[in-house]
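User: Sequence recovery, please. Input:
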C-alpha cells in the first residue's frame, strides 16, 4: 500500500495545481449524475427482491395477468338517506368502470361489487354450497333428528334442571343460523343503521404499481366531485378507502421517511462535525481563553467548514445515485435508505482527511505539501478502510435475495466514490479555497498553543477507557440471549391515522355485512390451473392438507367455482340429487316436518332447486370472484388463511402449506399472492443472512491480514469490530 501511494504522489500534486479544473470537472459530473439520479424510484414490490425464477414470483406474475389486482378500492357513501346513497353509487359505478387516463390501455377498474341478488341465493343456497358445507348440513340434520327422537322417547332420562334454559336447543339453533349465514349473503354492504353504503372496485392493474394506484384514486376523486354528492343529499359525505389505498399510503410514508431521515440526519451530522472543528480551531487560536475577535472570525468561517466537508460527500452521493439508476433502474426497500448510510460512512473519511490537513498546515507546510503529506499518510489509512468496507459490502452482491445483493453493490460503489471524493476532490477544494483566501489554515491563523501538562498518570485514560469498554461488553454479552427477531410486521408499521379514519367508515358497513353472512377472510392465495378440469383435483389436494395439519392449521377454507357451481352436467345432476335428499329429509321426516321455526323455513327455501342453473343465470357477484380478466370462468382455486399474515412466522407456515400443491395425478401447482411472496422473501433473507455475515467477516479478516502481514495485528484490528457488533446486538 505504501508503494501504491508513493506512486500516486504525482497525482495529488496535479490535483492541487489544477484545483479549479478538478472541482469544475467534479461539478459537471455531479450535475450529470443528478440528472440521472432523479429518475430513481422507490419500488416497494416485494416480488422484485426475489429471483425471477422463484415459484412464488412466477405464480404472482401469472395471477396479475389472469386475475388482476388482489386488493380493492372501497367507496363509502354516508348520509341519513339510504336511498340517496343508493342513487349516488348507482350513478358512480358506470363512470368508474369506464375511467382511464392517458398511458393506460384499459380502465382502472374491471368490476364493482355493490348490490347482490340475495333472494336468488336464498332460493338456491344449497346449489352453491360446497361439498364440505353440505356434509356439515347433513350431519346437523342427523343430529337434529337424533335429538328429536330422544325428546320423544318417554323412557329417556332427562337431566335438564327445571327452570334452566335449554342450552342444547339454543346451541342447535345457533349452529343452524351460523350455517345459513355462511351460505347466504346480504344484499348490500351497509352499516346496521343504513347510513353508510359501500361499493368495492377491483383494479385491472397490479397493486404494486404505485403510479397506477395514484392515477386510479385520482380518477375516483374526479368522478366523485363531478357527481356533486351534496346534490344527492345535503349531508352526504364520500370516503375513498380500501386496501388498495393502503398500498399507496405505505409507499408515500416510506418516501417521506427516506427524505426526512436523510435530511435531518445529514444536518445533524454536519452540525456536529462543524461545531467540533469550530471548537478545535477556537481552542487552538486562544488556548481556551475568551477572545471576541477570534470567536467572530471562526463563526464567520463555519459555513466554509460545512461546505468543505459536505460538498465532496454530496458529489459522491450523486455519483452513486447515477450508478444505481444505470445499473438497477429503481431503489428497493433496502437500498432506499442507503443515502444516509453512505453519508455517515463518507463523512468519516472527510473528517480524518481535513483534520490531518489542518495539523500539517499548522506546522508550517504549504498547501501542496500539506495535501501530499495528508494524502500519503491519512489518505492511505482512509483507503484501507474504504477498500475493506467496500469489499465486505460487495460480498453481499452474490446473494439471491436482492435486498442484500443490490444493497451490497450500491453501498460498495458508494464507499469507493466517497473515497475518491475525499482524497481527490477535497484536496482540490481546500487548495481552491485557500487560494482565494476564503480559508486560511496556515500557522499564523492556527497558532496552536502547546498542550498544558498535568500530574495525571499517563495510562489513566487507556485504563479507564478499557475498563468501561470491558464493562459494556460484559453487559452486552449478558443481554445477547434476549435478542429476538421481530416477525410481527404489524408492530413495525407506523400509525396511518388518516387512512385508519377512512377505513373505520368502511368497517362500519363491512362488519355489519359479515354479520349478515357471505363475506370471507382476507388475503386469499390463488392457485391457477392449466385447465379448469384440474380444479377439482387441486381443491381435493388442499383439503387433504387441511385434514393432515391438525397441530398448526393455517388454512381457513378453500373455494372453487366448480365446487360451488357445477359446470359439468353430471356434477350438476349429482348435486341436485343430494339436494333432493336433504329436501326430502326436511319435508318428510316425521321429526323435522313439524319444525316450522324461521331457521328451518329458510333451509327449506334454500333446498328448493330442482333443475340445473345455466351459467349465464348466475349473478355476477357469485362468479365474478372466479372470473379472469379474459372472461374465463372457474380456472383457479382460492385458499383463505386462518392466521394473520402480518406475522412473518404464520405467513411462512401458510406458504409451507399452500405454496406448492401436488395433485394425486402428480401435477404440481404453485399458489400466488403478495403475502406468499413476502413470506418467500423472509425465508430467503433468514437463510442467507448468516452466510452473508460470515462471508463478510472472512473477507474483512483476510484484507486485514494482507494489509498488516501479521495475524496478530489483523486479529487486534478485528477486536473493535467484534465488540461493536456485540454492543449493537
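Assistant: Recovered sequence (729 residues):
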Amino acid at each position: 500500500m505504501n508503494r501504491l501511494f508513493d506512486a500516486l504522489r504525482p497525482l495529488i500534486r496535479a490535483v492541487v495545481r489544477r484545483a479549479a479544473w478538478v472541482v469544475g470537472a467534479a461539478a459537471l459530473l455531479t450535475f450529470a449524475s443528478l440528472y440521472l439520479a432523479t429518475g430513481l424510484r422507490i419500488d416497494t414490490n416485494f416480488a422484485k427482491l426475489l429471483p425471477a425464477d422463484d415459484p412464488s414470483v412466477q405464480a404472482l406474475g401469472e395471477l396479475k395477468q389472469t386475475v388482476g389486482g388482489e386488493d380493492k378500492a372501497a367507496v363509502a357513501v354516508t348520509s341519513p338517506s339510504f336511498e340517496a346513497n343508493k342513487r349516488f353509487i348507482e350513478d358512480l359505478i358506470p363512470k368508474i368502470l369506464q375511467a382511464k387516463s392517458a398511458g393506460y390501455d384499459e380502465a382502472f377498474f374491471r368490476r364493482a361489487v355493490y348490490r347482490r341478488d340475495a333472494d336468488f341465493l336464498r332460493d338456491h343456497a344449497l346449489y352453491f354450497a360446497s361439498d364440505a358445507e353440505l356434509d356439515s348440513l347433513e350431519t346437523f340434520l342427523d343430529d337434529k333428528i337424533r335429538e328429536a327422537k330422544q325428546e320423544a322417547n318417554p323412557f329417556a332420562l332427562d337431566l335438564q334442571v327445571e327452570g334452566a334454559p335449554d342450552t342444547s336447543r339454543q346451541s342447535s339453533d345457533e349452529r343452524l343460523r351460523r350455517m345459513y349465514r355462511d351460505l347466504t349473503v346480504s344484499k348490500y354492504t351497509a352499516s346496521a343503521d343504513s347510513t353508510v353504503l359501500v361499493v368495492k372496485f377491483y383494479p385491472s392493474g397490479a397493486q404494486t404499481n404505485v403510479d397506477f394506484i395514484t392515477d386510479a384514486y385520482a380518477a375516483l376523486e374526479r368522478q366523485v366531485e363531478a357527481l356533486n354528492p351534496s346534490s344527492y343529499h345535503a349531508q352526504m359525505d364520500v370516503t375513498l378507502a380500501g386496501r388498495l389505498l393502503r398500498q399507496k399510503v405505505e409507499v408515500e410514508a416510506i418516501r417521506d421517511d427516506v427524505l426526512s431521515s436523510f435530511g435531518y440526519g445529514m444536518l445533524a451530522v454536519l452540525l456536529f462535525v462543524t461545531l467540533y472543528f469550530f471548537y478545535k480551531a477556537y481552542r487552538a487560536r486562544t488556548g481556551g481563553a475568551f477572545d471576541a475577535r477570534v470567536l467572530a472570525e471562526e463563526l464567520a468561517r463555519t459555513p466554509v467548514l460545512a461546505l468543505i466537508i459536505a460538498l465532496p460527500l454530496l458529489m459522491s452521493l450523486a455519483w452513486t445515485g447515477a450508478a444505481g439508476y444505470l445499473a438497477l433502474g429503481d431503489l428497493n426497500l433496502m437500498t432506499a435508505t442507503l443515502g444516509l448510510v453512505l453519508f455517515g460512512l463518507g463523512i468519516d473519511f472527510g473528517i480524518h482527511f481535513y483534520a490531518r490537513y489542518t495539523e500539517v498546515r499548522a506546522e508550517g507546510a504549504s498547501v501542496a505539501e500539506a495535501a501530499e503529506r495528508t494524502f500519503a499518510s491519512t489518505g492511505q489509512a482512509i483507503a484501507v478502510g474504504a477498500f475493506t468496507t467496500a469489499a465486505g459490502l460487495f460480498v453481499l452482491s452474490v446473494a439471491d435475495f436482492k435486498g442484500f445483493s443490490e444493497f451490497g453493490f450500491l453501498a460498495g460503489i458508494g464507499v469507493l466514490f466517497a473515497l475518491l471524493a475525499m482524497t481527490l476532490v477535497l484536496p482540490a477544494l481546500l487548495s481552491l479555497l485557500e487560494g482565494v483566501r476564503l480559508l486560511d489554515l496556515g500557522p499564523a491563523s492556527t497558532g496552536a498553543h502547546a498542550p498544558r501538562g498535568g500530574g495525571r498518570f499517563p495510562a489513566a485514560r487507556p485504563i479507564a477507557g478499557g475498563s468501561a469498554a470491558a464493562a459494556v461488553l460484559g453487559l452486552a454479552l449478558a443481554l445477547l440471549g434476549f435478542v429476538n427477531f421481530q416477525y410481527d410486521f404489524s408492530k413495525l408499521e407506523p400509525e396511518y391515522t388518516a387512512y385508519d379514519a377512512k377505513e373505520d367508515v368502511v368497517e362500519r358497513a363491512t362488519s355489519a355485512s359479515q354479520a349478515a353472512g357471505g363475506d370471507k377472510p382476507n388475503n386469499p392465495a390463488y392457485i391457477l390451473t392449466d385447465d379448469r378440469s384440474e380444479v377439482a383435483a387441486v381443491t381435493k389436494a388442499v383439503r387433504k392438507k387441511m385434514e393432515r395439519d391438525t397441530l398448526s392449521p393455517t388454512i381457513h377454507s378453500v373455494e372453487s367455482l366448480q365446487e360451488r357451481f357445477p359446470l359439468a352436467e353430471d356434477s350438476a345432476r349429482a348435486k341436485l340429487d343430494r339436494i333432493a335428499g336433504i329436501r326430502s329429509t326436511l319435508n318428510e321426516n316425521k321429526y323435522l316436518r313439524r319444525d316450522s321455526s324461521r331457521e328451518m323455513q329458510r333451509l327449506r327455501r334454500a333446498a328448493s332447486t330442482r333443475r340445473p342453473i345455466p351459467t349465464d343465470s348466475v349473478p355476477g357477484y357469485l362468479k365474478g370472484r372466479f372470473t379472469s380478466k379474459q372472461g374465463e370462468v372457474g380456472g383457479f382455486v382460492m385458499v383463505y388463511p386462518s392466521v394473520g399474515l402480518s406475522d412473518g412466522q404464520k405467513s411462512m407456515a401458510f406458504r409451507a402449506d399452500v405454496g406448492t400443491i401436488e395433485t394425486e395425478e402428480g401435477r404440481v401447482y404453485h399458489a400466488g399472492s403478495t403475502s406468499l411472496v413476502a413470506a418467500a422473501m423472509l425465508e430467503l433473507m433468514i437463510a442467507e443472512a448468516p452466510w452473508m455475515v460470515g462471508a463478510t467477516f472472512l473477507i474483512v479478516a483476510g484484507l486485514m491480514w494482507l494489509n498488516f502481514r501479521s495475524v496478530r495485528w489483523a486479529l487486534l484490528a478485528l477486536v473493535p469490530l467484534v465488540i461493536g457488533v456485540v454492543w449493537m446486538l
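Residues 396 and 404 are 6 Å apart (CA to CA).
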